[in-house]
Amino acid sequence: MSQPIIELRHVTQKYGAQTILKNINLTLESGQFYTLLGPSGCGKTTILRTIGGFNQVTSGDVLFAGKRINDLPANRRNVNTVFQDYALFPNMTVAENVAFGLTLKKLPADEIADRVAQALKMVQLSDFGSRDITALSGGQQQRIAIARAIVMQPQVLLLDEPLSALDAKLRRAMQYELRDLQQRLGITFLFVTHDQEEALAMSDEIFVMNHGEVLQSGSPVDIYDEPINHFVADFIGESNILPGKMVADYRVSFDGHEFDCVDAGIPDHEPIEIVLRPEDLTLTDLAHAKLRVTIDTQLFRGDYYEISATDDRGHDWLIHSVRPAQDGARVGLTFQADDLHVMRLHEKEAEFDARLETYEGTENHDQA
Question: Which residues form the ABC transporter domain (predicted)?
Fold first, then answer.
């Protein structure tokens, strides 16, 4: 097995009395696209800055290709960062911005010119070298910031919400470009975002964070289909989450009814939570219904209708349907056994909630 390019081992970061990161352990392999995903203030940017050498850890170790780099300054780490605001120099041309780091290293002029040309070609802006930064669009500036980072030939590229300032259409286009660029370069990307769809679309592996801890890591499919707890299920996409009970292997009860499921190995009668994604619910007539609801409202989202409904027990339901429903109508819902995801209740979740006040001040230190 190859040596991981980056490892964080039991990393804790404190600012005074505030604990921003608590016992973080994560491993990044070479040539993969990783995403740190979570709400503002959860510690994503702190991890990025820790890897980049801009923060000193309170305890724990940061390793690069197996070597401890806790005390290695930022300019000696083979990583580069693309910041949220791009941090481009308005008084320089595009080419001068891209060449900035190479110039500081005092490389030969012909080598600088060649590497700048190659980097601009990578981001599809070969003809923009002589232009002023202020004349570029937001998307073009974002590409220049990436070119300035990759021209240094880092082994790891850190990206701190670089798409957040773009409009929705351009942001989606840049997701494709970033993913394609990472695959062409073959280097490790660590991307920070609070946008769930963005993380799911771009990543090989996602680290879901909250309150300074990594709650779950895995592929986008694993994270979406098998959330480990209530927070992950609620944060990743949209979910219907209901209290229930494990009746026996492959059998659960919730909302006053028993249903088949695909889960086993959980003690009989143990309290659980059930997750049903809106797209897994199908509208049907009452005679064939597994659940019965009353339609409250619906919104047309282009390729589906987003429908909100309420059942007889007062539970709210979110349904994604390709066909509309009538407000106030009484309808049935159906689903398959493998659409039900069973989550065991974890005491650790209660601990997260109890520590909320401890982390409320972190946004002053970590804006991501």
Answer: 6-236
* Residue 65 CB partners (closer than 8 Å, separation 6+): 3, 4, 5, 155
| Contact in structure between 83 and 162 (CB atoms under 8 Å) | yes
pLDDT higher at 5 or 237: 5
Whole-number Å distance between alpha carbons of 43 and 38: 8
Cβ count near 142 (within 10 Å): 25
Pairing outcome for strands 188-193 and 156-160: parallel
Q: Please give the domain boundaries of the chain with CATH numbers for all domains.
A: 6-225 (3.40.50.300), 238-345 (2.40.50.140)
Instruction: Report d(CA 32, CA 318) in Å as an integer.
Output: 34
pLDDT band at 349 (very low <50, low <70, confident <90, very high): very low
Place of tokens 């059930």: 274
Assess contact for 352 and 210: CB atoms under 8 A. Answer: yes
Q: How confident is the model at residue 346 (pLDDT cuts 50, 70, 90)?
A: low
Neighbours of 68 (CB within 10 A): 12
Number of neighbouring beta carbons within 10 Å of residue 266 = 16
Structure confidence by residue, pLDDT tens digits, 190-221 = 999 999 999 999 999 999 999 999 999 999 99
Compute and round to an integer the Cα radius of gyration of the chain.
24
Whole-model pTM: value is 0.85
**How far is 213 from 55, CA to CA, in rounded Å?**
17
Per-residue CA distances from 341 to 74, 243, 253 (Å): 44, 12, 12
How far is Cα of residue 30 from the mean position of the Cα atoms in its chain?
A: 19
Beta strands 156-160 and 79-82, pairing class: parallel
C-alpha span between 82 and 308 (Å, rounded):
40
